[in-house]
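== Polypeptide entry ==
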Amino acid sequence: MAVRWVLLVLTYAMVFDLANSYDRPPASKSLFVSLSRDLDSTSPQQVHISLVGKDKMRVSWITESPTPATVKYGTSPRSYELSANGSTTSYHYLLYQSGEIHDVVIGPLKPNTVYYYRCGLDSSPEFNFKTPPAQFPIRFAISGDLGQTEWTSSTIQHIAKSNYDMLLLPGDLSYANGDQKLWDSFGRFVQPQASQRPWMVTQGNHEIEKIPIIHRHKFTSYNARWRMPFEESGSDSNLYYSFDVSGVHVIMLGSYTDFEPGSAQYRWLQTDLRKVNRSVTPWVIVLIHAPWYNSNTAHQGERESVGMKAAMEDLLYGARVDFVFAGHVHAYERFTRIYKEKPNNCGPVHITIGDGGNREGLASEYIDPKPNVSVFREASFGHGQLEVLNATHAIWTWHRNDDNEATSSDTVWLRSLASDPACKAGPAQ
């Protein structure tokens, strides 16, 4: 037990830089989800799905004992006319040995259709999911810095009621911070939702889990457990990738891997933006973890924010990206369309949505007076919904956990930059 606490302290001190910490109000109770007594070592657990290409889905799950990496599926309950095989991996982290991590890509699948599926053995329980629509409208649920607390539970319950098509998560998933059993708990915690709708994620600082000398590799657990479709977008890393869905091009960037001009991620982003066809995907949105714009006193001046913005803001502006969503700051904030610190009608709308739940509490102190580029800001737990109605218009709403689902705290209608003649996209530099 003593060794475990020493390792956790080292992880915090060396990776998360306690010198830059700030005062937070008390957080809600942390939760831990144990393996159900109804399950045995061959039962699938931590089931979640993610989109692969336009008509495929990756099904991921863990078993404690070896089982086939097979998914049987179909459009009727308990009737599986199709099946696919995948791969099984595992990993070590200090003294921890993971279970059997299974990944199976299934498809081609029909859009906007409910599929029923079974993972591994024929005795396993049945799950189901709905594929995203092929065309507009599409609704994204967006929430960062989830963790696994009572506030997280409230956030997920609100999201589950929202009839969303896909969840986008801009980093900081489990808050395991090296304690691998918390990764297992998180997988079980989110399974009811993550097994029914695709969850597309990128990494945050709490996914790094590097301990100097003791564990030299970053993102070991994250990469093993949450495999995203990076190869399909020409990326060489699970830490940054892109995909198309229902007329929207989504780009997931890595705040905690190299992003300077000339880096692999920078070159990939240049190439990816050049490939975007706005007649096919008129909307382009980007997710990062560390926000480029932030009027909260928390996380000011960090390299992952300031440096990445300096390196990549011109690329996003030139490509006329519509939205940039970030986490990291445990509060909500929406900026006007912005570029180079100033309002710009052809710049993206930056939104900080790091208010999913976490175990550290809210970042409640803001810079006073409020900058003129900041439209709405509030330190409350919640989530956002982006409903893209058609090629030209979308509506963004932010919901506090304290509110009923029908009540939104911040709402704005936005027009796609691709439909604005004054904002003709330039080439990615």
Summary: The mean pLDDT is 92.
